[in-house]
Amino acid sequence: MWICPVCQASLARTGEQWQCENRHSYDRAKAGYVNLLLANQKSRPDPGDNKTMMTARRAFLEQHHYLPLVRKLAEIIALQHPAKSLTIHDAGCGEGYYLHQLCSLLYRPDSVITAAGSDISRSAIEMAAKKYQTLQFAIASNFNIPVIGNSRDVVLHIFAPASAAEVLTILVPRGLWIRVTPAPEHLAELRAALYQTPQQHSADAEIPAGFEVLLQTRLQFNLNLPDLQSRKQLLMMTPYYWSVAAGAMDTVCGKMSKLSAAFIIQVFRKALQ
Ligand SMILES: C[S@@+](CC[C@H](N)C(=O)[O-])C[C@H]1O[C@@H](n2cnc3c(N)ncnc32)[C@H](O)[C@@H]1O
Ligand SMILES: [Zn+2]
Question: Which domains does the chain have, with CATH numbers?
Fold first, then answer.
């Protein structure tokens, strides 16, 4: 399923290496993932979300606060792709929670699900691969997704940067692209606790070239976070974390007693050329 980031030929695994026909080879890390991010694809030495953010994200997500979102995504996939065989790629998969939960929800005794994820963050992929050993993971950029062309039934981007052209390349004809972004009012209470004049998230209404819109929907639900710890985890997994002055964490989290999550889910189908 992976391709060589240098020459784009398919990679095959032999022992602890992935190799292409042109003899470019990539070590399989002990945790089971492969690093397919070339040095010239990095804007800094250790790109993507760091270990602190990933650890907070995992601790928060594993309390299943965002399960309504996963359920909604599973429902959409089951409806739009009822076939028994499913190939799915989560681009910008973070520490793997969504991909794992989705596979569990979609699993049927007679189904064959091939699932993989990629992320530019080494910490994220390391955590994902260690925990979810039946899924495949690679370090890679969403702007160079090293996956065989025309091979995935579903590509996901959940709060991750995306290139429509890359998605178009790896999707099968008529494949689905599901994109989740924060709705303008997502975690508005958190922003109100942080800023004097909180900005709303901006929504991207554009239809990407090569796709038709299947569905565009909003999902909103309240988060029940009675303890300070889970509010801290939520704050730490977002970029807002960097806006909190040292020592102000408890005060800010104390103000976050009522929180609502709001998402925009866009489902596109790859158009026939
Ligand atoms: C807000 S997090 C979402 C992670 C995961 N989808 C989730 O919801 O738990 C954004 C993710 O995108 C990754 N990311 C940022 N830039 C990226 C890029 N150019 N290519 C691939 N991943 C990227 C980050 O490392 C991070 O894991
Ligand atoms: Zn190669």
Answer: 37-270 (3.40.50.150)
The number of beta carbons lying within 10 Å of the beta carbon of residue 161 is 11
Residue 273 has pLDDT above 90, yes or no: no
Q: What would the two tokens of residue 201 be?
A: 């998230």
Ligand 1 in reach of 240 Cβ (< 6 A) = no
Summarised one tens digit per residue, pLDDT across range 17-74 is 999 999 999 999 999 999 999 999 998 989 999 999 999 999 999 999 999 999 999 9
pTM: 0.96
Beta pairing, strands 12-14 & 152-158: unpaired
The residue whose two tokens read 């988060």 is 223
Mutate to test the pocket of ligand 1, among 69, 145, 159, 179 (most ligand atoms within 8 A of CB): 159
- What are the structure tokens assigned to 24, written together? 């470019």
**Taking a C-beta distance cutoff of 8 angstroms, is the pair 162, 179 a contact?**
yes
Helices (H), 120-260: 122-131, 164-170, 188-194, 228-236, 249-254
Strands 25-27 and 17-19, by their bridges, are antiparallel
Using a 6 Å cutoff on CB, does residue 57 contact ligand 1?
A: yes
- 25-27 sheet: strands from edge to edge: 12-14, 17-19, 25-27
What is the predicted pLDDT for the residue at 194?
81
